[in-house]
Please model this.
Amino acid sequence: MIIKSFEINKINPKNYNYFLFYGENNGAKLEIIDDFKKSYSQNVQKYEESEIIKNKENFLENVLNKSLFEQEKIIIVSRTTDKILDVIKEIIQKKVSEIKIILNAGILEKKSKLRSFF
Model:
Protein backbone atom coordinates (compact mmCIF):
# COMPACT_ATOMS: atom_id res chain seq x y z
CA MET A 1 0.00 0.00 0.00
CA ILE A 2 1.40 3.39 -0.98
CA ILE A 3 0.23 6.36 1.04
CA LYS A 4 0.72 9.97 0.05
CA SER A 5 2.27 12.32 2.60
CA PHE A 6 -1.01 14.17 3.22
CA GLU A 7 -2.74 10.86 4.03
CA ILE A 8 -0.20 9.71 6.63
CA ASN A 9 -2.40 10.81 9.54
CA LYS A 10 -5.14 8.44 8.41
CA ILE A 11 -3.21 5.27 9.26
CA ASN A 12 -2.57 3.86 12.71
CA PRO A 13 1.13 2.94 13.03
CA LYS A 14 0.30 0.45 15.79
CA ASN A 15 -1.27 -1.81 13.15
CA TYR A 16 1.95 -2.14 11.15
CA ASN A 17 5.53 -3.15 11.96
CA TYR A 18 7.37 -2.31 8.73
CA PHE A 19 7.46 1.07 7.03
CA LEU A 20 9.17 2.31 3.87
CA PHE A 21 9.54 6.04 3.33
CA TYR A 22 10.99 6.98 -0.04
CA GLY A 23 11.17 9.99 -2.29
CA GLU A 24 13.08 13.19 -2.62
CA ASN A 25 11.35 15.21 0.11
CA ASN A 26 13.72 14.46 3.00
CA GLY A 27 12.14 17.10 5.23
CA ALA A 28 8.73 15.45 5.13
CA LYS A 29 10.19 11.98 5.65
CA LEU A 30 12.26 13.08 8.65
CA GLU A 31 9.28 14.89 10.16
CA ILE A 32 7.14 11.76 9.97
CA ILE A 33 9.95 9.63 11.41
CA ASP A 34 10.48 12.10 14.27
CA ASP A 35 6.75 12.04 15.09
CA PHE A 36 6.92 8.28 15.08
CA LYS A 37 9.93 8.27 17.45
CA LYS A 38 8.13 10.58 19.88
CA SER A 39 5.19 8.20 20.17
CA TYR A 40 7.48 5.18 20.68
CA SER A 41 10.42 6.62 22.57
CA GLN A 42 11.33 3.45 24.47
CA ASN A 43 14.21 2.20 22.37
CA VAL A 44 15.25 3.72 19.04
CA GLN A 45 18.23 2.38 17.14
CA LYS A 46 19.61 3.92 13.95
CA TYR A 47 21.55 2.12 11.25
CA GLU A 48 22.87 2.76 7.79
CA GLU A 49 22.15 0.12 5.16
CA SER A 50 25.87 -0.41 4.56
CA GLU A 51 26.38 -1.25 8.28
CA ILE A 52 23.64 -3.88 8.13
CA ILE A 53 24.96 -5.49 4.96
CA LYS A 54 28.51 -5.68 6.36
CA ASN A 55 27.38 -7.10 9.72
CA LYS A 56 24.19 -8.93 8.81
CA GLU A 57 24.55 -11.56 11.53
CA ASN A 58 25.07 -8.96 14.27
CA PHE A 59 22.09 -6.95 13.07
CA LEU A 60 19.80 -9.98 12.98
CA GLU A 61 20.97 -11.00 16.44
CA ASN A 62 20.19 -7.52 17.74
CA VAL A 63 16.73 -7.56 16.15
CA LEU A 64 15.83 -11.01 17.42
CA ASN A 65 17.05 -10.48 20.98
CA LYS A 66 14.21 -9.70 23.34
CA SER A 67 14.65 -7.67 26.47
CA LEU A 68 12.56 -8.12 29.59
CA PHE A 69 12.51 -4.38 30.16
CA GLU A 70 11.60 -3.14 26.68
CA GLN A 71 8.14 -3.42 25.23
CA GLU A 72 8.95 -2.30 21.70
CA LYS A 73 12.05 -1.50 19.72
CA ILE A 74 12.22 0.87 16.76
CA ILE A 75 14.93 0.40 14.17
CA ILE A 76 15.51 3.16 11.64
CA VAL A 77 17.57 2.25 8.59
CA SER A 78 18.80 5.17 6.47
CA ARG A 79 19.87 5.22 2.84
CA THR A 80 18.17 1.96 1.99
CA THR A 81 18.16 0.35 -1.44
CA ASP A 82 17.09 -3.01 -2.84
CA LYS A 83 20.15 -4.62 -1.24
CA ILE A 84 18.44 -4.79 2.17
CA LEU A 85 15.37 -6.66 0.92
CA ASP A 86 16.75 -10.11 1.82
CA VAL A 87 17.40 -9.01 5.41
CA ILE A 88 13.88 -7.58 5.74
CA LYS A 89 12.35 -10.77 4.34
CA GLU A 90 14.32 -12.82 6.84
CA ILE A 91 13.07 -10.69 9.74
CA ILE A 92 9.47 -10.97 8.52
CA GLN A 93 9.80 -14.77 8.25
CA LYS A 94 10.84 -14.92 11.91
CA LYS A 95 7.56 -13.11 12.79
CA VAL A 96 9.06 -10.72 15.29
CA SER A 97 6.22 -8.56 16.55
CA GLU A 98 7.94 -6.38 19.17
CA ILE A 99 9.92 -4.31 16.68
CA LYS A 100 9.05 -1.65 14.19
CA ILE A 101 11.40 -1.16 11.28
CA ILE A 102 11.45 2.11 9.37
CA LEU A 103 13.32 2.18 6.08
CA ASN A 104 14.28 5.63 4.83
CA ALA A 105 15.20 5.52 1.15
CA GLY A 106 15.89 8.05 -1.54
CA ILE A 107 14.11 7.95 -4.86
CA LEU A 108 13.02 4.42 -5.76
CA GLU A 109 12.04 3.46 -9.28
CA LYS A 110 8.65 1.87 -9.88
CA LYS A 111 10.35 -1.43 -10.70
CA SER A 112 12.35 -1.40 -7.46
CA LYS A 113 12.11 -4.73 -5.64
CA LEU A 114 11.95 -3.02 -2.26
CA ARG A 115 9.12 -0.73 -3.33
CA SER A 116 7.24 -3.63 -4.92
CA PHE A 117 7.62 -5.72 -1.77
CA PHE A 118 6.06 -3.09 0.45
